[in-house]
Design a protein that fits this description.
87 residues, alpha+beta, 2 domains, four-stranded mixed sheet, 1 helix, 22% strand, binds calcium ion
Length: 87
């Protein structure tokens, strides 16, 4: 395919669905979180982790391909719940 951005990969071609997998499947130059067409179902759920113990507040969720700073993939940090209620 002449306009295929990744001849190695069968799942990357113009018009393909964008997923959170580290590559640019639909060949628009943007991959994963940078591409607005990314499939929301492929995103992970992240919780705000104010104290950095790896557990975040289950009430503060964020959907994204990868965690931004201060986010954890585990919910249930008791200290985060207390801290966030004070804010
Ligand atoms: Ca992708
Ligand atoms: Ca893309
Ligand atoms: Ca925490």
């Amino acid at each position: 395919m002449d306009n295929d951005c990744d001849d190695i990969s069968e799942i990357a071609y113009p018009g393909a669905a964008e997923h959170c997998d580290g590559r640019d499947e639909d060949c628009d130059g943007l991959s994963d979180g940078a591409d607005e067409s990314v499939d929301p179902a492929s995103r992970g759920t992240w919780y705000r982790d104010g104290d950095g113990d790896g557990y975040g507040n289950p009430q503060t969720t964020e959907s994204a391909c990868s965690a931004s700073s201060g986010r954890a993939s585990n919910a249930g940090g008791s200290s985060d719940v207390v801290l966030d209620r004070r804010r």
